[in-house]
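for the record, two folds in this file. i put them one after another cuz i was lazy. first one right below, seq on top, structure tokens after. the second one comes after a little note so u can tell where it starts
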Amino acid sequence: MERKRRTVNVENRDRARCTPMLGANLARMDTSRSDVLILGGGVIGLACALYLRKAGASVRVLEQGTPGCGSSHGNCGTITPSHAAPLAKPGMMGMALRSMLRADAPLYINPRFDGPRLRWLLGFARHGNWRDFASAATARAAILQRSRRLLRDLMRDDGLDCEFAEQGLLYVYRTAKLQAADEHDHVAVLDRLGIEVERLRGEQLQAMEPALKPGVVGGLLHPGDAQLRPDRYVAELARRVVELGGVIETQAKVERFTTGQGRIAQVHSSRGSFQGDRVLLALGAWSPLLGRKLDLRLPMQPGKGYSLSYSRPARVPRHALVLREAAVCVTTWKSGYRLGSTMEFSGYAEGLNRTRLDALRRGAAESLHEPEGPELLEEWWGWRPMSVDEVPIIGPSTRWSNLSLATAHGMLGVSMSAATGELVAAQLAGTEPAIEPLPYAPARFGV
């Protein structure tokens, strides 16, 4: 049967001080003013808005496009404490540099010269040692595991309808060499962090997942992982924020700031000027671009990812999968089916890269009986906000007394969203946070 093709190119266009909030429960006469003004309506900004509203703060979100139109929209929607380990480790930079010769490599660095990207890559390489690896893995595990528990509570208590499922994530191997390497490295890290992982033989995996072609040699099951439909999750967060009295301004591109006496006095956007007792920068990959207007030098780069969304094939995987040799993530929902992943460092270059989309298709075809659905619904690209140490930047700014940040979540924004919202709400309310905030503090970068 000929596959129907409907392509939607979701463009990424312009779209340690901490004091408790004052007057969080008081009605506002000035409708342009809020207790907290949130810059960015992606998954992180909206999760922060929800937890802040639950804490009693008035919130207004300024979103340059529509809620979740950036990297929140087209990722694979996996909730993954299993991804606690960062990319940077000894030997990784050499592999990344060799990828310059392969435009379809799962991790690809565009060889075009780009000064900011080169500086970021050099910083990234400096973190490729075992001490920094262990430190980043511990910080990432803490926020991932906390967020995983909170997400279950959000689904139940707030009635979020986004196809949340808790059956775990499977790594699938077709070569014994890669499986042995992961069992030596990946499993050892998860064991140290207290994150459950189960080893599976090839025949066990084949019985669990008849959608896989014969030839798998084994797998790893991460039973604590989960999945949801990310675009619906973001829409549901936005719905709850508005239901609880928050305000979301769409098509509100932040253009400039008025500052004075070490504070941000006003935020000027394409939809008007706004004030907040506190301002929260949660703009994902756009954070360093806007940060320059505030004299902030955020050590971040966009890591470009891609996905293909389809109507459901007849034979679909029962679990979310990572096809390890091809580094392709496969997610199935009642409402659809998605292939995704890849990491491309090309700066702020926009647009789809056919070579990388084709690599997703080939990788899925190597392992799945039905790698694509009957109808192609969307081809997508998005920028992930990558910090130089692969730990998110969350907490009060050292430069501006009423500015906080919640950004640089890399590939794990959906996974870390709930715990980020909870942490920001606790910091701004002056209450004890559930996780230690120091590893995520902007102060480590002097911002």
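(here's the note) second protein begins now
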Amino acid sequence: MSLLSRSLGFLVLLAAFPAAAEDLPEPQIQHDPILPMMAEPGGWYLRLDAAYPAANGVDGGAAFQNNQLDRNAVVGAGVGYRFDEMLRVDLSADYLLARRAQGTLAAAPTQESARISGLTFLANAYVDLPNSSALTPYFGAGIGSSYLITGDVAATAADGSVARHGGARKWSLAWAMMAGVGLEISPQLSLDAGYRYIKYGAAHSAAYYSGGNMVRTQFDGLDAHEIRFGMRYQFDSGVMRAPGAVLPDF
């Protein structure tokens, strides 16, 4: 093939290229949608609580009658961890403001009384029931210890004479069951209102002589039905995700 023929063939190809290029599909530019970011539920939280007993109880045993425990406020705080939308746990400490316990010794009759205050330490677990509203019902249970302190222990006889005894401190097993509802004010802050039944255990006086024997005045079965109000502050977990996205597994 001569040089002239080759040159003519090359010119024909150049002339045909623009027409072929027009038949090619235009390139498509893809844009990934920008999804809103959401905080993954979970992380540490702090709580503050206040309670007032709707009813209190004290059991003096068969020897005592007309047992009663005055009502007084309870204040507390705790630190917890939320695992997911439904499960959270916390450690709480409550301070029981002083209240008076009393009962009548049937055999004498003598009225025994004491001022009781103390602390309770509980490990609690809760199940939240999330829904489409800002109100989240929950229920839970806790177990731990109470440290009860007695003072102003007195025995008042029928003739009005009063025998006073020393106070004492006592650790007891404590447990509680609770239910309530949380109101979400913001992603971090929730208000809480609920009911708690708590069993404090027992308290007693210092040992003293009575009828030639060393005895203590015992206040058993201390418990309370509480109406509680509080707040929870959830710290940011620091884990962000787009809705429906799968977090990478490193």
